[in-house]
Amino acid sequence: MAAAGQGSPSSSLRRRDAPRRPPRDGYGVYVYPNSFFRYEGEWKGGKKHGRGKLLFKDGGYYEGEFVDGEITGEGRRVWASSGDTYSGQFVLGEPQGHGIMKYKAGGYYEGELSHGAREGYGHLVDRDGQDYRGCFHDNQRHGQGHMVFRNGDRFEGNWVRDRRQGHGVLRCADGSTYEGQWHSDVFSGLGSMTHCSGAVYRGMWINGHPVAQAQRIVILGPEVMDVAQGSPFALSIQLQQDNGEVAKSEDGRVLKISAGVRYVQLPASSEVSFFQVDKDNPQTPIQTPFGFECIAYPLRSPQCGGLGPGAALGSAGRDPLLPGGGLEPALPPDFSPGHRDAPGGPPGQASCPEDCRRVEQGCARFSDVCLGPPPPEYSPVLFLDTPHQKAGGRPRGGPGPGRTPAVQAPPGGSRPDGAATAEPAAAAFPGEYVIMIHDVTDPPFLGHTLPTAFKHLRVLRTGTDRQPHSPGEGPKSPS
């Protein structure tokens, strides 16, 4: 009896200490032995089956469908560690099929998943607002897709492991477009860039850079170009690569022509030069590659008799230098990309002012260029030869003995009272001038403005083939 009495309480204690078994069928609550999981919901045959909620000790949970004890079907999962949430289809505890993943850091993904990773077609918006619609593989953009970047750029094309690769089209927010080959997220291979300035490059690219891009402007012709006073002339321009080849892959850069006259300071007075400029209209000297400086000088169209706004190819007033004496002239206010269609050009390409030309296959031409008469604020200074100079040679290197600088009175006529009447000069005086070709593509093509090109020009007196006399430069007086 004693033995029997001792055995009965022991058996009862073992039954009370044994872990509680999960419910067999219907609705029930079960806390797992490791205390990490707690389930409340439907059961079938002792397994979670139907709808229920599985809570995790860290605060996360899954709520949705279960099949034979596994998370399978439609449901919602919350991760306590990251704060991310997923609503959609599950297979064996992992997001699989179609669903929506929302990220606590910002953004979301809606589309196909496999084993918890983005796989197949989907729509991803990141925390910066960048928007991608297309194919995914192994959680990365892979295959055809369309991307809208934070800065407004849009790309449509092929992706490989989260990078643009293969053929694609990039439409930039500024209006530029690239269509062609990509490698590792940069332009690489054959491609065409139509820049928002109207410039176009068609050809090979390597690591995001055009292979045959222009590097300099070249004005063709002799080193020193001689023209007769008042006569028009033409200039042929090439854009050249580093190797000297013409950059035929480029179209549409805007080149602007301007002119300067040699600036000479005489040792006798720092305020005297080949042209004495009014103090109210100071000119910043421009350094040339010919060993002397020049100041801005107007150009005009030979078909027009004056220097009106519609007739001028360029003038000191319309061709201002940038602050600090820079060489790049500003485009006229009415010149902007897309301002109006250029004749024969693509729609939306701005037409050029008379003093500008667009490059075609790396070349441009300025025809009927003519130096205008000196502007009113320029007073020409002539060098009077003495009888001694006429008989012998003339000294070099400045006025020197026997040469006298004098401000020339404009050619005059006669009035009834015998007084001279001043008439403006009809053409540029004989002397040394400079023609400049500037790259004024705006904005600069691929961020690169070509250096200004210079051409040394000598104007000869009409009816003679004698070279014009130019005074030598004396030492500059202190400013």
From TrEMBL:
Listed Basic and acidic residues bias regions: 14-24
The signal sequence is none
Entries under SMART domains matching the protein: MORN
Under Pfam families, the record lists: MORN
Region feature (Disordered) = 1-26, 315-354, 380-422
Matching entries from SUPFAM superfamilies are given as: Histone H3 K4-specific methyltransferase SET7/9 N-terminal domain
Gene3D superfamilies per record? Histone H3 K4-specific methyltransferase SET7/9 N-terminal domain
Name the keywords, alphabetized.
Repeat
State the name under which the record lists this protein. MORN repeat containing 1
- Organism taxonomic ancestry: Eukaryota, Metazoa, Chordata, Craniata, Vertebrata
